[in-house]
Here is the input.
Amino acid sequence: SQQGEEDPQALSIQEGENATMNCSYKTSINNLQWYRQNSGRGLVHLILIRSNEREKHSGRLRVTLDTSKKSSSLLITASRAADTASYFCAINTDKLIFGTGTRLQVFP
Amino acid sequence: EAGVTQFPSHSVIEKGQTVTLRCDPISGHDNLYWYRRVMGKEIKFLLHFVKESKQDESGMPNNRFLAERTGGTYSTLKVQPAELEDSGVYFCASSQTGAHDEQFFGPGTRLTVL
Here is the structure.
């Protein structure tokens, strides 16, 4: 399977803590994208990192990409209860191939 | 600017019936995609339109699924006849310049086949 595989499957933390989610994949990619899905809602695009980039920041989000290890990580700093959601990585090979996601629960 | 919209938000049908899902992409987006998430599994690509043409339909599960995008605007996804395993959430997404760029997703249609 080419799909991204995410680790951990579920993560529970307290507000203010950092959350780190990892994604591994098996094929060559054009870019890798991270999405968030709040319960019962659509997918929200968070960040896109291209295959020639190693790190990217957007607000409290930091994404790294290691193409030699075929892995990426998403770090959410100073988490908030509103960050509670499922997070998906998606590798782009001409179409998006999603992982199974990480369920993040942030407790107030 | 309106985002991607999908209709209906939820559909409950019996096995053997027909259901048609609709997606309206962001205005001006030539690229339109369909994905689905079956219970507990990953979100899977179904197909990709560029304007009215099917660019990639490699993810379509079988010939019970028919997607159209007449006129290159909105798209429909018809399931006929529906089977139990078709239950899941069907997402539509659109992008402006191609498959390599950010895709904007709709809220999804939850399909339940009884």
